[in-house]
Request: fold
Amino acid sequence: MSTPGPAVASVAKPAAAVVGPGGELPIVSSDVSFVEIETLRSREFIPEAKEALSALVKEQAEGKLIRPVFNWAGRNSLFPLHWGLACCAIEFAAAFGARWDAERFGVVPRSSPRQCDLLIVNGTVTWKVAHKLIALYEQMPEPKWVIAMGNCATGGGPFRTAYSVVPGVDKLVPVDVYIAGCPPRPEALLDGILRLEALIRERGA
Amino acid sequence: MNPEDVRTKLAAAGAPGIISIEPFEGVAARVKFDPTAATALFPIVRDALGFPHLSMVGGIDWVERYEVFYLVWSDPAKTYLLLSADLDAKAPHIETASACWPSANWHEREAWELVGIQFDHHPDLRHLLMPDGYQFHPLQRAFKLHEPEDLEVKVRHV
Ligand code: SF4
Reply:
């Protein structure tokens, strides 16, 4: 949108050169954004926007537009539930710390299952806590995904035959991605999340 | 405090059902008692011997018998005392200690659910570490570890 509007004339150009600590900096052509803003404000924009919006609504009705957008937005902002079960939770915590910073992938742990679409089962699930896990899963709104992090969540791990441990969380909830390791490193968790994103891209939200 | 002191004090208080008093590693003495005398013995140990704090209750399956033991602590004497009783292998049961030491409550729940010792007149004998409705006593020698494939998973809907 670089249509020169009447407002262009009123845009004050910045000074000819900006001298920074490293010498002269190239001038950013800043008028463009001003022009865009002025154009947006102009009356011509309103019919244009109406037209675009009605096209959106039409495409949405046919299921063409919103689904991909929803899929794109959903897979790039997975909100896992902030809960820790066992030692894997330490690596889970590390993945969200400064060093690995999972938030750069849009993954932000939330404290309420109502705000989450991803359940990362990060540790040993005992029979005592199994009902709570299912309750948390069912409190999450659709669409939702589950990552089994570590050997314990995947298949019981070192406690596979123990009397108190669920041998694999897939006995309780449907699992989308399994991450091996005891515990998996934070990189492995990030890899699992990216694989889940790829899975959502393929399967749809 | 040594086993002789324990013997003298118990005798002075007229403690019933004492079978033997021996030295034992890390505690003042190990007192074996008859389980039917438990209700009378516990308050004597608490008040006359001065062991007001019950640290733990545990059970062991020795195949031919069960053993239940109580570890009690005395703050002035800075020592533990071990009380233990042999129970019948068929139907192990003993009177609860929670009327005397309230901290026995959860310990007895644990000993009941894992080892299968019945504590008579316990105020609230429910599962502690396992979910409600769990059928086994997993620390009994007869308990077989399952293969996960044999497991029938029944999940109560919450
Ligand atoms: S997989 Fe290993 S590190 Fe993870 S919860 Fe199980 S025992 Fe702990």
